């Protein structure tokens, strides 16, 4: 009987620990109804300072930053317009949410990248996208998205989007973090400062040092 009771206690402790770890993996829960960020504050905390709630109005919760398409006249043919608490949507502070408008020229690419602190859900408003992510076993999960489709990119995994339509495309991304983070794979490896030693990249990618140096020049 004692052994059975001990087993139940251990199982209960493990369940609590697992549940706690899961909860802590996301943004902290808010302790107030809202906390509209004071973007003028220079105080650095794990989050953003709130403005005086007495000064907040309904308009503070409205966001109009996605009305216009982003400028896709660049090498990748894409543009990301943010809707984040710390950038231009203060009402999202403490709400565990972030958004972005993604615009793609014909053939436009959102290059392979990761969001270390958030899962991303992509909603296609216009066009056709070839998307996919790679899991930690290096298995690739590609698909084609059309207008009205949703797709989930799991937290922290490398993913991308490519416009394969005959014209521009447009999508909205949502994140379950007010600060999901962004790490572009190519930029991180070939554009790091100070730079990663050429020998590391030569060995990792199996390419000549001349190619490594050429790629670095692009960043």
How would you describe what is shown here?
The chain has a domain of 129 residues: Jelly Rolls. Helix content is 21%, strand content 26%. The chain contains four helices and ten strands.
Structure summarized in a few sentences:
It contains 4 helices and 10 strands, in the order αββββββββββααα.
Keyword list:
Jelly Rolls, secreted, 219 residues, signal, alpha+beta, five-stranded antiparallel sheet, Germin_Mn-BS, single chain, globular, Germin-like protein, disordered N terminus, metal-binding
The main sheet orders its strands as 1-2-9-4-7
Report the sheet-strand fraction.
Answer: 25-35%
Question: Any guess at the CATH architecture of the domain at 53-181?
Answer: Sandwich
* Alpha carbon gyration radius: 22 Å
* Uncertain residue ranges: 3-24
Which structural class do the helices and strands define?
Answer: alpha+beta
| Tally of separate helices | 4
Question: Superfamily at the CATH H level of the domain at 53-181?
Answer: Jelly Rolls
Q: What name is given to the CATH topology of the domain at 53-181?
A: Jelly Rolls
- The averaged pLDDT comes out at 89
Just give the CATH class of the domain at 53-181.
Mainly Beta
Which helices and strands, and how do they pair?
Layout: H1 2-24, E1 78-83, E2 98-104, E3 109-114, E4 120-126, E5 129-134, E6 140-145, E7 150-153, E8 158-163, E9 169-175, E10 183-184, H2 185-190, H3 198-205, H4 209-217
Antiparallel strand pairs: 1-2, 2-9, 3-8, 3-10, 4-7, 4-9, 5-6, 5-8
């Amino acid at each position: 009987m004692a052994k059975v009771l001990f087993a139940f206690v251990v199982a209960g402790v493990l369940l609590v620990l697992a549940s706690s770890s899961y909860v802590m993996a996301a943004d902290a829960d808010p302790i107030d109804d809202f906390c509209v960020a004071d973007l003028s504050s220079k105080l650095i905390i794990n989050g953003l300072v709130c403005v005086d709630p007495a000064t907040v109005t309904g308009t503070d919760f409205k966001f109009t930053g996605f009305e216009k398409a982003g400028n896709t006249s660049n090498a990748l043919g894409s543009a990301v317009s943010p809707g984040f608490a710390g950038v231009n949507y203060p009402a999202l502070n403490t709400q565990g949410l972030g958004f972005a408008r993604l615009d793609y020229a014909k053939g436009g690419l959102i290059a392979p990248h990761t969001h270390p602190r958030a899962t991303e859900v992509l909603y296609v408003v216009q066009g056709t996208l070839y998307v996919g992510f790679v899991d930690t076993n290096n298995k690739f999960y590609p698909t084609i998205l059309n207008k009205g489709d949703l797709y989930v990119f799991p937290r922290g995994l490398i993913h991308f989007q490519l416009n394969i339509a005959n014209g521009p495309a447009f999508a909205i991304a949502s994140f379950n973090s007010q600060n999901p983070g962004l790490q572009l794979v190519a930029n991180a490896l070939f554009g790091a400062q100070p730079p990663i030693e050429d020998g590391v990249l030569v060995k990792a990618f199996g390419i000549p040092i001349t190619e490594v140096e050429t790629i670095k020049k692009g960043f």
